[in-house]
Amino acid sequence: MVLLDGRSGSGKTTLGAALASALDAELVGLDDVYPGWDGLAAASLTVSSSILRAESPGYRRWDWDHSRQTDWRAVDARAPLVVEGAGALTPASARLATLRLWIELDAPARHTRVLGRGDGDSYGATDLWDRWAAQEDEHLRLHRPDALADVVL
Questions:
Q1: Long-range Cβ pairs for the range 9-14 (8 Å, 24+)
Q2: Helix axes 128-143, 107-116, angle to 10 degrees
Q3: Which positions ≥6 away from 142 have C-beta within 8 Å?
Q4: How is the chain split into domains, by residue range?
């Protein structure tokens, strides 16, 4: 079980997909779990309480177009798993993981990456970037995911 955390635009999704492919693992991206633009803390809790639990692991997928939870996505508890997203690594989830990764990248480079991707106009070029960064700041303050990581990239 691999947990991959870092701030927006740091490369979590790209690395997570590559790791899942190399490990023949299931991939859960927290972008499917965050309950809206103010949902980093809620999704972070979902990692340890639902996605990584021993019995019936899974999560409710978030429909960004309709701003609501939708279908239940089961996770195979017997298969290798990679969970990537801001908020993935907390003291509670760290205890359940085999490998814990933190990706570090400076804010200007991350912002440039976000502006260049598909959701850049709706996210990186608006106040949502600052709104999300404040939640990342709180996650870092409360949980110190960088200090919980086995590897910092």
A1: 9/105, 9/109, 9/110, 9/111, 9/112, 9/113, 9/114, 9/124, 10/103, 10/104, 10/105, 10/110, 10/113, 11/103, 11/105, 11/113, 12/84, 12/85, 12/86, 12/103, 13/84
A2: 130
A3: none
A4: 2-152
What confidence tens digit (pLDDT) does each residue in 39-72 have? 999 999 999 999 999 999 999 999 999 999 999 9
Tell me which residue has tokens 């990679």: 82
CATH number of the structural domain 2-152: 3.40.50.300
| pTM over the 0.90 mark | yes
Q: Closest Cα to residue 4, out of 84, 95, 87, 90? A: 84
The pLDDT tens digits of the residues spanning 87-145 come to 999 999 999 999 999 999 999 999 999 888 776 567 766 789 999 999 999 999 999 99
